[in-house]
Fold:
Amino acid sequence: MRLWRTLFYTVCGVILAFLVAPLFVAIPLSFSNVSYLQLPPEQWSWRWYQELLSGRQWTGPIVTSIKVAAVCAVISMVLGTLTALGLDRSSWKGKDLLLGLVMSPLIVPAIIISVAMYGMFARTGLVGNMLGLAIAHSVIATPLVFINVSAALQSFNHNLDQAAWSLGANPLRAFFYVKLPLISPGVAAGGALAFATSLDEVVLSLFLSGVRSRTLPMQLWDSIRTEITPIIGAVAVLLMLTYAVLFSLVEGIQWWQNRKQQDTTLPG
Amino acid sequence: MGAEVILKDLSKAYGSLRAVREVSLTVYDGEFCTLLGPSGSGKTTILRMIAGFMAPSSGDIKINGTSVVREPAFRRNIGMVFQNLALFPHMNVRENIAFPLKMRNMGRSETRKRVGEILELVRMGGFEARKISQLSGGQQQRVALARALVFNPPVLLMDEPLSALDKDLRRHMQREVKSIQTQLGLTAIYVTHDQSEALTMSDRIAIVSDGAIEQVGTPRDVYEMPVSSFVGQFVGESNVMIGTVGLDTTGRRVLEIEGGIRIAVPEDCDVPVEKRARMLIRPEKLAIGHSQSSLTGTKGTIEDAVYVGDAMEYRVRVSSGLTLDVKEMKSQVYKVGDPVYVSWDLSASRVWPEQ
Structure:
């Protein structure tokens, strides 16, 4: 038994290392002071980080990406939360159909969504601007918010709604004072995922962005195709840090949510 | 100050399932009225329709003469205590209790004053800043009650609010809820499946079965004079004897039960001869003796004897298929195996046709 277990962990460890280790190569690469990829670097420096954050070439796309991701997170949080609320405890016949429709962007290849959207956005003037990009990203990010909020609603005690009504709160006030505060961890976790998704998105962006709405992944893509310098490593490190922060946030939020929901149940 | 609540032909149907069937009931101003019934009898549905969480399929609800069926729950001004209390977990005690006042746009100093007063009333003064999760079951109960009362509703609805508490605390809270209700002169409508709770707290009890009201009356009425075998068996303990109505040698009507035993039936019994009937009699109405002491009775053997402090509880085997439970306050104690007579006053038993 023991042998098998050791073997099992070894195999898993090797596979994990094989998949994840290349990510960490970016770290030493980014601290090199020569303009080609060198591993390990002969001399360490902050050169590429300075370059990254000084010229417009990279800061522009970074700012664009953050703006687009933020707008996308907001749109997705609103749409995803409203959809989850609408479908929660509903016995409507078309529920499954709508559910499928909402979730379909997770299954349909991004390239197909891109082509479809390009056709429509071209007619409405949304191609080439940040808003259009944020809207497009929301299409694939909304299901993530929807899933998280639906999960939060599962453990919401629906008597609380009725309690609020009986105490004189109209449905809107009951929502803002009682339900929203209690499902907000789900909304926030969904928002963080939406932000991360938008930040990472490249296919839709290639189709729909213009000169003024170049995102970071696009800049990265172009940069890799034209000239490979350790600046790519620096970008990768920054992105990894961002994701680490975002996902710790999601974990933290989920932990917070579990604690909150525990409070909802009576002892004994 | 309370209000009169009138339910008129109130019905609720889910498709072909009729959860509540033409319920009519008047709850008087300041009265404590309990809807008592087994789970699934529709009592909670009635309460939810009064609260406004559910629209009746037909019928009307009037509070102080005004129909409220078209009013949404948040405009009915009715206090409600939920079975699981439904306290807001993200608010502390003060915020929970201040919530209905906030919804009524009450000023800060007035709110503070009222919250303080109501917490004193439920004996929770000083707990304002506590989180809900830091309170015991009984304390949460008091906060839920305070929150439902703080905006001075004329009507208070309670849906099995004490069911989560242990027995002693439940008894204690029953008295307290009742005393607060009397003190404030509220009209209270209380839902429970616990018959002893209903008997101790209520001015009147409405027995609900199968979506309809079987009987409305004071606790004494429903206990002493149940209108149906359902009520008799649901409220309090009862011995049940099922048999066929026949005539004895003197021409009196008797109930012939299994084992050839014949039991006299009360004069007012209206079940015709040769029909099946069900007889109910309370354990405390039965007497045990070495000989027959009252008008009617039967022989048996003590099968079980339990000392419960204030009384003895016996189980007497009358025939292979029938035992009678007897509760006696007398000091004479019978042992298991003793041959005895179980006798009772003819009028203490009640008989209904058996469906």
